Amino acid sequence: MSEMTANHGKIGVLVMSYGTPQSLEDVEAYYTHIRRGHPPTEEQLADLKGRYEAIVGGVFPLRENTNGQVAGLQDKLEQLAPGRYVCYQGLKHASPYIEDGVKQMAEDGVKQAVGIVLAPHFSTMSVGSYIKRAQEQAEASGIAMSFVESYHLHPKLLQALTERVADGLNRLETSSGGVKPVKVLFSAHSLPERIREIGDPYEKQLLETSAAVASKVGIADGDWQFTWQSAGRTREPWLGPDILETLDGLAKEDGIKAVLVAPVGFVSDHLEVLFDLDIEAKAAAGELGVALERIAMLNRDPLYMETLAESVIEAGA
User: To the nearest 10°, the Cα dihedral for 97, 98, 101, 105?
Assistant: First the structure.
């Protein structure tokens, strides 16, 4: 049976994410795409490759995480609605691009689709830009497409994050020898400050997720805060404070001895987690005499797969 026959009449699911290079050789092309056709300088490229090389196993596991999430969502949709949905992948900065995923749906005879991004919080600059690209290609390809814009307070997402924060605090207790005081830092990828001027919901949604998880774990208001990470290197101001500044202040001004980082803005192990937190932030904390642990990422957690599947089914109803 051809793909067209097999998928005709099914609802397509375009699973979108930022994308990662497939190998060290792809790093230059990947960042050239991010920089809108401007290749990174030799110095920037060396820095970027160094970051990937510093992560155990290099680039390759990063792409596997996304592939695994798409496969996990397909499995979960098949359990909840047998034979009804078929998943496609569309990446912002790597192949298959968002447009490629939509075109593949059209080739396979899909007429109705739902788009969802592997990021729980909506921003016009992130999720909004994915949706715009998918919508334009869907219209050109004759596909009726609806979208999940955010799912930052889905009960199963909150449950998965709550379990991870509780587990992380237990690990921190052990690894730090039970030192006090402890602070939980919720974090997400920074965006340019101008999103505040347009009333973008990104920051509000991140704070809502953080507050909900802190409440479920039983963390007092004064024992957690939100911080930013992984800001871009551009001339315009980005949302702050950055986690490295936050750690410095917590250690020197508040006497914090142990920190659990909960990067709730991310859903899988990739560069911003494995390098920016596990290597850079951990080293900074060590110099300050602060014990630092990070929560486990969602990756293919069944509760996260159910969050995605239920959100897709609701959007496609």
Answer: -150
Kindly state the average pLDDT of the residues 155-164.
Answer: 98
* Residue 97 annotated as part of some ligand binding site: no
Query: CA angle, corner 286, sides to 280 and 290, nearest 5?
Result: 115
Q: How many domains does the chain have?
A: 2
- Check pLDDT > 60 for residue 3: no
Same domain, yes or no: 235 and 138 = no
- For residue 4, pLDDT over 80 is answered with no
- Domain CATH for 179: 3.40.50.1400
Q: Does residue 1 register a pLDDT over 50?
A: no
112 and 181 inside one domain: no
- pLDDT per residue over 59-116, tens digit each? 667 888 999 999 999 999 999 999 999 999 999 999 999 999 999 999 999 999 999 9
Please state the φ and ψ torsions of residue 168, each to the nearest 5 degrees.
-65, -40
Domain membership of residue 55 as a residue range: 3-151+301-316
Query: Residue 18, annotated ligand binder?
Result: yes
Is 189 known to sit in a ligand binding site? yes
Residue 53 annotated as binding?
Answer: no
Phi and psi, residue 177, nearest 5°:
75, 20
User: What are 92's two structure tokens?
Assistant: 């912002």
| Residue 51 assigned as binding residue | yes
